Amino acid sequence: MPTLFGRRVLLRPLEPRDFSAWREVRRRNEDWLTPWEASRLPGQPDVVEDPSAFAARCAARDRERQLGTGYAFGVFVEGCFAGEMNLNAVQRSAFQSCYVGYWIDQARAGHGYTPEALVVVLRFAFEELHLHRVQAAIIPRNTRSRRVVEKIGMRDEGVALRYLEINGVWEDHIRYAMTAEEWQERGDELVATWLA
Q1: Distance CA 173, CA 190 (A)
Q2: How many other β-carbons are positioned within 10 Å of the β-carbon of residue 159?
Q3: Among residues of the chain, what percentage have pLDDT more than 90?
């Protein structure tokens, strides 16, 4: 299991033993996170309250990692769980692309931990996984999340109408991206700024 290091953050796959810390942060941040997340499907166990559902989620993420289709990381600050940073829907062949998604504990927001963790996973995506493109899709009114990708210079590629269902509503999303060529051009600068 890969462990990735930034200047102040550590990223590693979540394990069943992380449930209590993960649940505490998710419970405390329910109002902060719910407006931006997909609704739980009817009949699906509540991963925040059910340790076995959380363990199954960890096992599913392990399978994705083994198959090379996803790389999910817990973000840890000062040894404490603080959020997640995930590379999802990794596709190979001619596309060589993935999506990045993230969230941070509101108590840790505004300190640059999320852009730092994003630079860590971009370096992993481009230098270890050899992907060509990393994309992010963000609801336009989610200004905090948009600020993260804008801080590191991911390109705004326009609005995808009714792109994802969030809380039962088909929401427009701004699509941001960075390619391997852009990372080759700017990666050293991003690493020096955020990780050195």
Answers
A1: 25
A2: 12
A3: 89
Q: Where are the domains of the chain?
A: 4-194
Residue of 132, 125, 142 whose CA lies nearest to 87: 125
Q: Between 19-28 and 51-67, two packed helices, what is the crossing angle to 10 degrees?
A: 110
Give the E-state strand segments of 48-194 in sequence order: 71-77, 80-91, 97-104, 133-138, 155-166, 169-179
Residue 130: CB atoms within 10 A of its CB come to 10
Q: Is the pLDDT of residue 1 over 80?
A: no
* Fold type of domain 4-194: Aminopeptidase (3.40.630)
- Exposed, middle or buried by CB within 10 Å (0-12, 13-18, 19+), for 42? exposed
Tens digits of residue pLDDT in 8-63: 999 999 999 999 999 999 999 999 998 888 877 778 888 899 999 999 999 999 99
C-alpha distances (whole Å) from 66 to each of 28, 61, 63, 69 are: 32, 9, 5, 8
Q: How far is CA 171 from CA 73, 142, 164, 186, in A?
A: 26, 11, 6, 31
Q: Tell me the pLDDT of the chain averaged across its residues.
A: 95
